[in-house]
UniProtKB/TrEMBL annotation, chains A, B, C, D:
Domain (Potassium channel): residue spans on this chain: 136-210
PANTHER family, A to Z: CALCIUM-ACTIVATED POTASSIUM CHANNEL ALPHA CHAIN, SLOWPOKE 2, ISOFORM D
Descriptive protein name: Ion channel
Ranges that cross the membrane: 20-39, 46-68, 119-145, 151-173, 185-210
Compartment(s) where it occurs, according to its Swiss-Prot or TrEMBL record: Membrane
InterPro entries for the chain: K_chnl_dom, K_chnl_Slo-like
Keyword terms of this UniProt record: Ion channel, Ion transport, Membrane, Potassium, Potassium channel, Potassium transport, Transmembrane, Transmembrane helix, Transport
Keyword Transport appears in the UniProt entry: yes
Membrane topology label: Multi-pass membrane protein
Keyword flag Transport: yes
């Protein structure tokens, strides 16, 4: 019936033991990627090699973790892929690893029986964080391809961040545009993410706002009808 | 159960007594901010100092009001912050103070048992007013940073307002763009507000439109079925 | 209970008698407005005066119709304004008069007991038609203010239509932008309409699409369960 | 009651027999259209004629298939048009034929009683595929009209694809814009499709995301309440 059976105990133990190393690896990966692109000309070849090794080691750790979890889950590869979609995306795009932090924060709150974020707030935080990380990676990559291209208008990393913000918001001033084929391919990816994920953020925000106003109405009704707590009304979820 | 317990009576008395002074302070703050930026070169240093004092006094009043209400509410700072989110935002961004007017208008209507605005209409009015005020503040601030910058295209306050409208609507012609780092930071803020709040306005407008058409259908049904008033049908909220 | 009581019989008779004259007047108004702007330099002063008289007469007819209906309805002005919002808007912006055609088409279909358009389809048709008419009027007005302005990029009516489409879709290439203050004010109006009404169109289209897919599912279920007609299932509205 | 009665057996037989030829014809049509535009100057007149014949034969096959199905369905033309909207659109715009593949894939899955895509996933796949195909056709057509126009900025097919992506996402940088009347007419069509269909994609994505988060909540609840499978809860559809 349920598509996601509870994880077996050995898998749970593995997850808990790997939490800290994976968090470190994800920060190392992101930092390594950023430093290689931004400080390329200021670093000696030795340092660049060190950073490359750090980046690849972090990635390898994600791959190993994924393989072990696939093994321990007792599911087939395809079924595991479908039920652990976010984990699979993280292996291919390790830049998104920090998104899992929100899920870990949620688990900690739940263990302590503390209230978690509301549904819409969680969708906003996840989608917003994903957009921010993908936007950061997109700005880095576009800057990498455009900075030295002839006729380019995106010349500094600051320009790339400004361009990314204008693109994600679908404002698109056009004062800066990628001119290289690879820069444009990354730009289309940034647009697609912007449309889909920021659409989720704004949609959730609208729903949350309307829900807040509706609850306030119910509170007012409750106060008038003799203080019946609004939390029991069926509309409040 | 309810996250927002009814306010204690002393807090309510304080709120009622502060309504008028805070409304005056918010108008003074907004006017002071606008005059300092727009009429900067036409005013003597003495007048500029007077306006600065007015602006800071207004802000101080907001901070004092917030502190007293936190004290009287009997809640901890974090809990108060969570249940009085709009008030907290107003202390940090006093430009948003006039948004509270809508809430005060609502309270007055309720006291007289007059009908309030519908749910979607209220979301539209709140979000639209917030966007208008933030857009006005954004245009002022962008004008402040851009007007004298070398290579700038936003040269007059009219230009800044036109640029803000094109940005909020995510049209982004690109005939005018901020070129200074601070101008761009403010621009990103304007984009974020535009996306989130105008998304709420258009979403509420769509919902309201669909609701209106549905009600008309129900009225027609009611007329045919012997004049049963549509107000009793479960779909109409 | 009901906010819209059924119209009294005399009002209904008036409405039916005025249908044809008002339709003619609305076409005359729109044509007069367009001809005055587009063929300004090709017409003699005599013809321009004739067209102006036609335009003003049409408008006067709308005002008279509104006044008579307000009188016959037996409601106060404010209450009539609230329950006949579209009619009021038409008096101020007679360019929107053709939007009422959809409502007349609906009434004719209903009299003959023929199926009307679905809820989402009607929202799409109304909003889409309103956007098309407002966009047409916006293109005319922007062309009127921009065509002869120094430094303008909108030089022909074709340019104005192309600019309006790019603005309504919030694409905003920026190859053409209004440069006069009045042109920009109209542009902001076009943006606001585009955001609100096209948001309603696309929102209704999405809802309609999802509804269609859901109905197909229910039909498949019905076929399997022995041909139970899907029209009776509660989800289909 | 049901607007779509089950298709008669002869029609079903026809559909099954035509599946393969129509799939071949749709690929042939799309390839022929693309080759004629992209390789125009590299092909001899003989080859161009061959390709034209292939394209027209494919189209003829769609028209014949539509006519036969209209005949076999036993419905009037107008009623058939309303209940087979997608088929009708395909006859006019054969570029959309591949969209029907998704529907065929669904039918095969159903015959084997395998799980189909979820509701939102199907809306996303259909709308996304339609946008991709219409965008491809739009880029081809705009390239066809713009490439040789004086003062054009869209010079290569790569430029046309980049322009189409920026337009569909409503980013609209303005570094490339169509300048010919026909190019602009196609551009307005691309904008309209982009708004409507990508709106459906992002709307479905948001709904799917919120649904996923809600299900996770329910799973957690289920685990706590003694492992009740979440599939039975009423909210999960």
């Amino acid at each position: 019936m349920s598509d996601r059976s509870p994880d077996p105990p050995r898998l749970e133990r593995w997850d808990r033991r790997m939490e800290a190393p994976l968090a470190v690896a994800s920060v190392a990966y992101l930092a390594g990627y950023a430093v290689r692109i931004l400080a390329h000309s200021h670093l000696s070849d030795g340092w660049l090699d060190v950073i490359l090794v750090v980046t690849l080691t972090s990635w390898a750790l994600f791959v190993v973790d994924y393989a072990v979890r696939l093994r321990l889950s007792g599911l087939g590869p395809l079924r595991f892929l479908r039920t652990h979609l976010l984990d699979t995306v993280v292996v291919i795009l390790p830049l998104l690893r920090p998104v899992r932090m929100v899920s870990i924060y949620n688990q900690i709150q739940r263990r302590h029986d503390e209230p978690r974020l509301g549904l819409y707030a969680r969708v906003m935080v996840y989608s917003g964080l994903t957009v921010a990380l993908l936007g950061f990676a997109g700005a880095l990559t576009v800057y990498h391809y455009e900075a030295d291209a002839p006729g380019a208008s995106i010349l500094t990393f600051g320009d790339a961040v400004w361009w990314t913000c204008a693109t994600l918001a679908t404002v698109g001033y056009g004062d800066m545009v990628p001119v290289t084929p690879m820069g444009r391919v990354v730009a289309v990816g940034v647009m697609a993410c912007g449309l889909a994920l920021l659409g989720a953020v704004t949609g959730s925000f609208s729903s949350w706002l309307i829900q807040s106003f509706r609850r306030e109405d119910e509170k007012d009704e409750g106060t008038r009808n003799g203080g019946r707590p609004p939390g029991n009304s069926p509309g409040a979820s």
